[in-house]
Specification:
Oligomer: single chain
Helix content: under 10%
Shape: globular
Strand content: 25-35%
Structural class: mainly beta
Number of domains: 2
Distance between the termini: 26 Å
């Protein structure tokens, strides 16, 4: 069965290393979901999904809000927090469908889908050297739209 929501990986936690994390306060945009890679728009303080064309906004990974139903976007203007990934820590993130088995250790980078990551081989050789910012921490499967990654 494909992993399509964060809890399919065990529970709703985004940061899973059990180590201290840095969090940045922000506001929801009504689109991004916990586990999405996001930036913060300076003029509004709202999050925005990071993609291959907007990577300059990247701040981190949108944290879960346990007051909301799982797999629900953070409402527009609602308080939220963005986890700043720490080197060596593991996180649960949103990704584009892997399209088949993906081995542990495969590099991940920004995709063309805002807020999601994908195998760097899928975004091209030039992009893989610039956008490979994490690696698969588990084996991915066809249909997976969430995964665990080490940054």
């Amino acid at each position: 069965m494909a992993n399509t929501k964060i809890s399919d990986l065990g529970d709703r936690r985004i940061a899973i290393s059990g180590l201290p994390e840095i969090r940045i306060p922000a506001k929801g945009n009504g689109i991004a979901k916990p586990g999405d890679v996001v930036g913060i728009v300076r003029s509004t303080g709202k999050i925005a999904g990071t993609d291959i064309g907007a990577f300059e906004y990247y701040e981190g990974i949108l944290d879960d809000n346990p007051d909301l139903e799982e797999d629900t976007p953070i409402p527009d203007g609602a308080t939220c927090s963005v986890i700043v990934p720490q080197s060596g820590h593991k996180y649960r993130i949103g990704c584009v469908d892997m399209g088949g088995e993906v081995l542990k250790g495969t590099r991940l980078g920004f995709s063309a889908s805002a807020g999601k990551m994908e195998k760097t081989s899928a975004v091209g050789v030039a992009a893989s050297t610039v956008f490979g910012i994490a690696s698969m921490a588990i084996i991915g499967a066809n249909g997976d739209t969430v995964t665990e990654a080490r940054f």
